């Protein structure tokens, strides 16, 4: 029986700015995504019957039923493609959850790409993006990978030129998790419903700058205030030789950019009570090749 295995890469936000509240109640974002080599693995094959069967190879981290993004992605695309066969999927989790690394969204995008490959069918990119956006704001980015600009809720994605490969150390505190809803609630006070044109213009100029994208994250003040240890982790990364460091998404992981993997590995030893990942940035070409070259 035909089967396939597809990686679902993590991401960090090199820059993440919340520029206002939208009329629909969501927050207007300007962000630069970057995929990392840290990844989950999704295995898929056809199954007897018509059900979607999902197994999570990591106990207690996320549900395996219809509330799981992989299950929802398979169900949505199977319906769009009019596929009536059963699907068996096994998700091997490595990306920690509720840490701002995009694991669930990446898993969903891998499920969409995987089902297209498994079935041999195709779908216009616009329709695939529409399905992805219905699953979550970050999911469309994971159809592209590499480095990309995200606007709107983060679901309007524009690929950017890839930067040089960088060594990145991710520190994921075992004792701290941050809900995205809480993080937005903490920063919502004082935000207006309109965006700031000058802030948007300066941000877009940075995106295309040949000097690269300096790290920044508007969630940091509010999240660090409620979880001071995250600020100490960022400081420790910088003191250990990271060129830059920042909160990953809305947290609670913190990452540092290093000049070489050896320095990143030595720094990882400073965090014995936390989950640490020595990883690297992944270009769009490498990302799409890992997804089957589509």
Question: Could you characterize the architecture of this molecule?
Answer:
This protein is of the alpha+beta class and 294 residues long. It has 2 domains: 3-161, Ribosomal Protein S5, domain 2, CATH 3.30.230; 167-280, Alpha-Beta Plaits, CATH 3.30.70.890. The chain is 32% helix and 29% strand. It contains 9 helices and 11 strands. The chain has helices at residues 69-81, 103-119, 125-135, 180-188, 197-207, 220-226, 228-239, 261-268, 284-290, and strands at residues 3-21, 27-47, 52-56, 86-92, 147-152, 156-159, 167-172, 216-217, 244-247, 254-258, 275-280. The strands form 2 sheets. Strands 1, 2, 3, 4, 5, 6 and 8 form a 7-stranded mixed sheet that branches. The protein has a 4-stranded antiparallel sheet with strand order 9-10-7-11, covered by helices on one side. Strand 3, helix 1 (69-81) and strand 4 form a beta-alpha-beta unit. Helix 1 packs parallel to helix 2 (103-119), helix 1 (69-81) runs antiparallel to helix 3 (125-135) and helix 6 packs across helix 7. It is globular. The two termini are 23 Å apart.
């Amino acid at each position: 029986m035909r089967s396939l295995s597809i990686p679902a890469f993590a991401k960090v936000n090199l820059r993440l700015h919340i520029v206002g509240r939208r009329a629909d109640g969501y927050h207007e974002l300007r962000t630069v995504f970057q995929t990392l080599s840290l990844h989950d693995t999704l295995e898929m094959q056809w199954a007897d019957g018509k059900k979607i069967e999902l197994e999570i190879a990591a106990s207690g981290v996320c549900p395996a039923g219809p509330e799981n993004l992989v299950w929802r992605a398979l169900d949505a695309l199977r319906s769009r493609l009019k596929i009536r066969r059963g699907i068996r999927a096994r998700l091997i989790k490595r990306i920690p959850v509720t840490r701002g690394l995009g694991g669930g969204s990446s898993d969903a995008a891998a499920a969409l790409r995987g089902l297209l490959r498994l079935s041999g069918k195709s779908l216009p990119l616009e329709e695939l993006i529409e399905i992805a956006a219905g699953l979550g704001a970050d999911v469309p980015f994971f159809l592209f990978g590499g480095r990309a600009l995200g606007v709107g809720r983060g679901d309007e994605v524009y690929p950017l030129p890839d930067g040089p490969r960088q060594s990145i150390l991710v520190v994921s505190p075992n004792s701290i998790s941050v809900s995205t809803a809480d993080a937005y609630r903490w920063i919502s006070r004082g935000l207006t419903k309109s965006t700031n044109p000058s802030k948007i213009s300066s941000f877009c100029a940075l995106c295309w700058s040949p000097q690269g994208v300096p790290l920044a994250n508007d969630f940091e003040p509010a999240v660090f205030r409620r979880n001071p240890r995250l600020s100490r982790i960022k400081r420790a990364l910088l003191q250990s030789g990271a060129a830059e460091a920042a909160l990953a998404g809305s947290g609670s992981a913190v990452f540092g950019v290093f000049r070489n993997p050896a320095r990143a590995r030595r720094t990882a030893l400073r965090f014995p009570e936390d989950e640490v990942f020595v990883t690297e940035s992944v270009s769009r070409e490498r990302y799409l090749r890992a997804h089957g070259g589509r």
